[in-house]
Amino acid sequence: MIKRIVIKPGDSILLKSGDVFLEPLCISAKGANNQPIVIGKYGGDKKPYLKGDGSYLEMVHVYNSENIVIRDLEISNKGLKPRPYLSGLLVDLHNYGKAKNILITNLYIHDIYGSLYKGDGYNNKEVGAGQAIMLQSVSGNGPDSIPSCFDGLTVKNCYIKDSQRNGIMMWGNWIRKYWFPSTHIIIEHNIIDGVPGDGIVPVGCEAPLIQYNIIKNCPKTLPPTEACDGIWPWSCDNAVIQYNIVSDQNSQVDGYGFDSDYNCTNSLFQYNLSFNNAGGFLLLCNSGGWPQEFSIGNRGTIVSYNISINDGIRQYIVKGMSKFFSPIIHITGPTENSKIEHNIIYTKKKRLNDMDKRIICSDNWSGYSDSTYFENNYIYVEEPTKAFDKSKATNNFFKGNLFVGPLLTPNIGFQAYHGKFDKKMWYSPKDPHWRNMIEFVKNISIPINGKMRKVLDIIGYN
């Protein structure tokens, strides 16, 4: 712990390139505007390595700090067995107020051997998920005596490898009557590789921006009780999730590339690529029954100009269920005023006859969805597939959806396209949104049933 020196704005704490440190780095310091305190390296290209053995809950702990930069470090934290609440990096606020201008960049975090059990009421001695990075502005469920939040927090260019349970997590003032949101949050250009749980989860934020991240190679190691998804905001308003690539989500519960979760309004998912996720492309949910002072539900989600390829491929029956469950889009609970439009959904023939063959399933989570708009989407199927399984959902609106293949559709809002699934069907050069999406995926190839294929070939653009 750095506590015997005075750290002033503009100072740097630099670790020697290539050296290995077996004890944690703990710091509490305040820089100033244009004079941040920098934690980083000197003396070469190789990152200094903070190598933990699970004895400490985190190997880098930044406490009640602002105007600070954490960069160019390698971090691991692996003991003999998983440890609850284990982290690589913890940035923590407690009774602090507003912490400004924190930059986390160019970290290599790997082998964080935390618990696989998130919690949510399960009685297990290992409850308390581990994560590579935890960004925390409230203790427990709060409230703290002095509410805290981040104002200007960026996590970028980090590589997270083979860590459990989660990747980049936030925890904030989520209860609406105590809501004190973090602002100017940017999480971008990170790679999360080999993480079985949730990839990126902003919590308690106003207008977080999550973009240009890659989540892949999620191992099938979560217990059957555990739900996770690639990227999802919780207790956030006006979140923007764009230009991300999520694949290989393999949890037995959920397992979706993207999730518009509850206690949120106006979440925007655009220009994302989702493929080979066991659950599917999108979870849209609201846990009904919460009083307004705790949760305001899920209202105003927009999901547009995304590409889903070969999602919904779970090949087993989840514990506690009687049949296969992996609709491409799962809407559950009393969501309101959701728009799903201008997306490409490309599904391959399922490997097992009894696997889930539905594009959308809307079902109960203490209530049902209301006012869902599914418009101008473009669907490809290779076998009989049900377009919409609505249960008791109300006010479902379908318009202008085109499809190729044997799609079983409602009476209105879907039209068979008599031709190949190609850009003549869905692309308009006058639409800047499609240009943005094409520019993003133009050099990307993905594995589909063992073969690498260009995304633009799959969706018929080339």
Tell me about the largest β-sheet.
15 strands, parallel
- As a percent range, the share of strand residues is 35-45%
The chain-level mean pLDDT equals: 96
Question: How is the CATH topology named?
Answer: Pectate Lyase C-like
Low-confidence stretches: none
CATH A-level architecture: 3 Solenoid
| Number of continuous helical runs | 3
CATH superfamily: Single-stranded right-handed beta-helix, Pectin lyase-like
Topology (elements, then pairings):
Layout: E1 12-16, E2 20-21, E3 25-27, E4 37-42, E5 49-52, E6 60-63, E7 68-71, E8 74-77, E9 87-92, E10 98-105, E11 108-112, E12 131-136, E13 149-156, E14 159-161, E15 166-171, E16 182-188, E17 191-193, E18 200-201, E19 203-206, E20 209-211, E21 214-216, E22 227-231, E23 234-237, E24 240-242, E25 245-247, E26 253-260, E27 264-265, E28 268-270, E29 273-275, E30 280-285, E31 298-299, E32 302-304, E33 307-309, E34 329-332, E35 336-341, E36 344-346, E37 358-363, E38 370-375, E39 378-380, E40 385-389, E41 394-399, E42 401-404, E43 407-408, E44 414-416, H1 423-426, H2 432-441, E45 445-448, E46 451-454, H3 455-458
Pfam families: Beta_helix (PF13229)
Organism: Microbacter margulisiae
InterPro entries: Beta_helix (IPR039448), PbH1 (IPR006626), Pectin_lyas_fold (IPR012334), Pectin_lyase_fold/virulence (IPR011050)
